[in-house]
Amino acid sequence: MKSDIHPDYHEIKVIMTDGTEFTTRSCYGKPGDSIRLDVDPKSHPAWTGVQRVMDTGGQIAKFNKKFAGIGARKKG
């Protein structure tokens, strides 16, 4: 096996969406760095079974405004 080709494998801190933390080993960043998760098993619908609609930046409102007239039939 070749020497000096493997990345540095060290401990980092992972911060979950609810604020809980745990330590794991990773190649991410430098030793002692932390990573904050946006989605984790405690909040993702695939694991929780609870669906939430998150309207980020008004995407749903924008869609509804753009396609409001489609499907509405006019008499005449």
Explain what this protein looks like in three dimensions:
- The chain has 76 residues and is of the alpha+beta class.
- It has a domain at 1-44: Rhinovirus 14, subunit 4, CATH 4.10.80.
- 16% of the residues lie in helices and 20% in strands.
- The protein has two helices and three strands; from the N terminus they run βββαα.
- The protein has helices spanning 45-48, 59-66, and strands spanning 10-15, 21-26, 34-36.
- It has a three-stranded mixed β-sheet, with no helix packed on it.
- A hairpin with a 5-residue loop joins strand 1 (10-15) and strand 2.
- It is elongated.
- The mean pLDDT is 81.
Q: Which descriptors would you attach to this protein?
A:
single chain; 76 residues; alpha+beta; Rhinovirus 14, subunit 4; 3-stranded mixed β-sheet; 2 helices; 16% helix; 20% strand
Largest β sheet strand count, sense and barrel closure: 3 strands, mixed
Q: Which sequence of strands runs across the widest sheet?
A: 2-1-3
The tally of helices reads: 2
Quaternary assembly: single chain
Structural class: alpha+beta
Cα radius of gyration in angstroms: 22 Å
How large a portion of the residues is in β-strands, by DSSP E? Answer: 15-25%
CATH-derived architecture of the domain at 1-44: Irregular
The helicity comes to 10-25%
Low-confidence stretches: none
Shape: elongated
CATH overall fold name of the domain at 1-44: Rhinovirus 14, subunit 4
Name the average pLDDT: 81
CATH classification class of the domain at 1-44 = Few Secondary Structures
Series of H and E elements: EEEHH
Report how far the terminal alpha carbons are from each other.
79 Å
Total strand segments: 3
